[in-house]
Design goal:
Number of domains: 3
GO molecular function: tRNA(Ile)-lysidine synthase activity
Helix content: 25-40%
Keywords: ATP-binding, Cytoplasm, Ligase, Nucleotide-binding, tRNA processing
InterPro entries: Lysidine-tRNA-synth_C, Rossmann-like_a/b/a_fold, TilS/TtcA_N, tRNA_Ile_lys_synt, tRNA_Ile_lys_synt_N, tRNA_Ile_lys_synt_subst-bd
Strand content: 15-25%
Largest sheet: 6 strands, mixed
CATH superfamily of the largest domain: HUPs
CATH class of the largest domain: Alpha Beta
Organism: Pseudomonas benzopyrenica
Distance between the termini: 60 Å
Subcellular location: Cytoplasm
Structural class: alpha+beta
CATH architecture of the largest domain: 3-Layer(aba) Sandwich
CATH topology of the largest domain: Rossmann fold
Number of helices: 14
Radius of gyration: 28 Å
Length: 438
């Protein structure tokens, strides 16, 4: 069976797709893939076909590569979309370029579209070895998935079971031209070192190592799928516990169900929970979770991760994004308002009673007191403690003042009443794009 026939057989097992986007760098892999899809189009490929080239600007020849890709696409009558990106390589240029590339792909992928990439089995083996020497867990050692979701569509690597030699043979038989990236020979880069120095020796020693490692990756992918199902069960138990702060628009979990799990299951559940929120912590960084999990109820531990923190409060753990670390700004009220936009802190509504000119919105500084009907003047700190207000929330709760008199605290039952009988309602910003920040 030819390479085209094998691709066609795999295509028949894929969901119906109307928008095909081929990641096209101009190198061997993507060139073969684009030609194959152009042939599939001749045989009735449903939907539109378009190539996408990402211009990183990291090589002097990058502009020439765009011209090469343009000529190839004109020859095949395939539209080409060229995307210019900037890779911030402060930590790892390879990783930064990859992240910029996938972000660009995600932006141009249509609803229900499929991004097709040309990674092959040799790429998979390099990925496995690279992750192994970095101490990756089950998910990492499962390698690159053949398919996964990508924003409103999906990503597919149809050549992942094909060796590079099969792609090279096809390209030579068809007389294709492709770009040779000179950086691919630089063995100072980890992936290139594995490709040129390590894998050839492994193959000399164990001729069947490619198939064995690919099979091992599939086994680990199955194990990762089972761990994902277990995480879903554990997270479901931690999510279904009711609490009194459902109006806080931050991801959260009940702590007690997590504490009842073994340490390994805790980490497994938290990896799944954190996956859409932040970069996964490395092994040493999990000490931060232990501090949060084991701290006393009266303490305020935090686990700092990229883009935010995991905090405790009200018997739960919360993902608190970095935007919540910025102190909100006070606001003077100059008219009879019923709704106020708070800079960086969502929106404040005056229910059943409009605000009065001269009132102001402030935030906790310490030492505040509030008159509570039937109880007299009480320290705000004590009132927060009585209602179990999470520590990370206390500095963001809008306080309504008239001169030096604290009138109300938004959203807290018994403390949110306005002088005329209305109520102060706060709709917080989530700091992650779901609610406006001002």
């Amino acid at each position: 069976m030819s390479l085209l026939d094998r691709l066609h057989a795999r295509l028949e097992r894929q969901p119906l797709t109307r928008h095909w986007r081929v990641g096209f760098s101009g190198g061997l892999d993507s060139t073969v893939l684009l030609y194959l899809f152009a042939r599939l189009r001749e045989h009735g490929l449903p939907g539109d076909l378009q190539a996408v080239h990402v211009h990183h600007g990291l090589q002097a020849a990058a502009d020439a590569w765009v011209e090469h890709c343009t000529q190839v696409c004109q020859k095949l009558a395939v539209p080409l979309d060229t995307l210019h990106v900037h890779a911030d390589g402060a930590a790892s240029l390879e990783r930064a370029a990859r992240e910029a590339r996938y972000a660009a792909f995600a932006q141009v992928l249509p609803q229900d579209g499929c991004l097709v990439l040309g990674q092959h089995r040799d790429d998979q083996l390099e990925t496995l070895l690279q992750r192994l020497v970095r101490g990756a867990g089950v998910k990492g050692l499962a390698g690159m998935p053949e398919t996964r979701s990508l924003v409103a569509g999906r990503l597919w690597r149809p050549l992942l079971d094909e060796p590079r030699s099969a792609l090279l043979a096809y390209a030579e038989a068809e007389g294709l031209d492709w770009i040779e990236d000179p950086s691919n020979a630089d063995t100072r880069l980890d992936r290139n070192y594995l490709r040129h120095e390590v894998l050839p020796r492994l193959r000399d020693r164990w001729p069947g190592v490619d198939q064995v490692m690919a099979r091992g990756a599939r086994h680990l992918a199955e194990a990762d799928e089972l761990l994902g199902e277990l995480a879903d069960l554990d997270l479901q138990r931690a999510r279904c516990v009711d609490h009194g702060f459902a109006w806080i628009p931050l991801p959260n979990l009940a702590l007690a169900p997590l504490q009842a799990l073994s340490e390994a299951r805790q980490r497994n559940a938290l990896r799944a929970w954190l996956d859409p929120l932040t970069r996964q912590p490395d092994s040493a960084h999990w000490a931060g979770w232990q501090a949060v999990c084991e701290a006393g109820a009266a303490s305020d531990p935090l686990w700092r991760l990229e883009g935010g923190q995991v905090r405790r409060g009200a018997g739960r753990i919360w993902w608190v994004p970095d935007a919540w670390q910025v102190a909100p700004q006070s606001l003077a009220i100059t008219g009879q308002e019923t709704s106020l936009k708070l800079a960086g802190n969502g929106r404040l509504n005056f229910l059943e009673q409009a605000a009065e000119s001269g009132w102001r919105i402030g935030y906790r500084q310490g030492g505040e007191r509030l008159f509570v009907p039937g109880r007299g003047s009480r320290e705000l700190k004590r009132l927060f403690n009585e209602q179990g207000v999470p520590p990370f929330l206390r500095g963001r709760l809008p306080l309504l003042w008239r001169g030096d008199e604290l009138l109300a605290v938004a959203n807290l039952p018994g403390l949110d009443g306005l002088p005329g009988g209305g109520r102060l309602e706060w709709q917080p910003a989530d700091g992650m794009g779901g609610f406006e920040l001002g």
